[in-house]
């Protein structure tokens, strides 16, 4: 087992990784920018190294500085968390060249899934159903028009290197198509330095349902059920739950099995998430994330399995601690992303948190690095914590969520807590009756 793990991230996920390491008897090294000197993960880690100025490009994305921090502290492995360098194949390669273990899949699998066109072709070959669309890249407007007519409007133009909902444009008819293509191309080039595009049928009212998978180097593969992440704003997840209110045990086992078999065929290692849109009883693959996800706790709550612990075991060459038949789903879990943002306008609200009181009690988990007196720096994303609630069934979970939200105090900055308090009174949400556009429709009516 590793003796020392460097956590190449910040915020709640850095703390999450630290906690798993501590429970495994592994020392931790926190890295931080000058803006994060007083962060909780820095305070709790066994050692910390300042790796640069506030801008992420100079700190959390600064590969030479992170390698130096590993060398100085003698870390034998790096956990990348999510975001930042977590899906950067070059980072995985460089760590490997330095004899440091990247806690994640192989650089080749990261590279493959990072190219969404290649990812789609690969998983289709492995038996996973995909969204109908262009087989490969669309290179010009004439070709795009022919494909769009074949799959039928509306179509969605997407960036091969896409992420975070960027580089995605809808065309409702042939007239809108050239504009969608040129907009997506410009946005993709600016955001990812890669303007390769592909096209998909734009599904009207699907749910976003993703399957958690895990595989070790001893030939063990399992799926850990699904998460429903249909509550989104601008293609970004806001609230996630497991199990999905839309699936029954049979549908769950069926898609889980298809995904686990595909992952096995891929020779994948570690944890990963295969994302689908789900409409009229059919699954359509959209992408695979080769990392731990923000919403992983809902899976942990209903399975009792610590995903970070498993990641570390697998990276160290050990077997995962369970088999498919050991995975059972108990009760229901919901996660709310608490962002330092205005709950109506979603304008970021950095600043000093005066008072911070988290809810507690049975079935309540808060993953957060925030505390009273903490100053939220303006340089990074606005997620300041996650409230995760577990109940024996969905109704108990909802009642507990309402109670926990009422207990949560964050004074001094705006947060998204009021949005969740509104949601918990909405019949559609209470009934689990919502799709990927539901939240934006709801917000438009407020
Ligand atoms: P990103 O990597 O940028 O997050 P994804 O491919 O994972 O992009 O899609 C993000 C979200 O965009 C999905 O959860 C869904 O809301 C929407 N989306 C993606 N593809 C389609 C599609 N073909 N039809 C309708 N909505 C889609």
TrEMBL record:
Supply the InterPro entries for this chain.
Answer: ACC_Biotin_Carboxylase, Acetyl_CoA_COase_biotin_COase, ATP-grasp, ATP_grasp_subdomain_1, BC-like_N, Biotin_carboxylation_dom, Biotin_COase_C, CPAse_ATP-bd
> Which keywords describe this protein according to UniProt?
ATP-binding, Biotin, Fatty acid biosynthesis, Fatty acid metabolism, Ligase, Lipid biosynthesis, Lipid metabolism, Magnesium, Metal-binding, Nucleotide-binding
Ranges where the Biotin carboxylation domain occurs: 1-444
Occurrences of domain ATP-grasp (ranges): 120-316
* Residue spans crossing the bilayer: none
Could you tell me the superkingdom of the organism this chain comes from? Bacteria
Looking up Pfam families in the UniProt record yields:
Biotin_carb_C, Biotin_carb_N, CPSase_L_D2
Pathway of action: Lipid metabolism; malonyl-CoA biosynthesis; malonyl-CoA from acetyl-CoA: step 1/1
Reported EC number(s) for this entry are 6.3.4.14
**What function does the entry list?**
This protein is a component of the acetyl coenzyme A carboxylase complex; first, biotin carboxylase catalyzes the carboxylation of the carrier protein and then the transcarboxylase transfers the carboxyl group to form malonyl-CoA.
What is the name of this protein? Biotin carboxylase
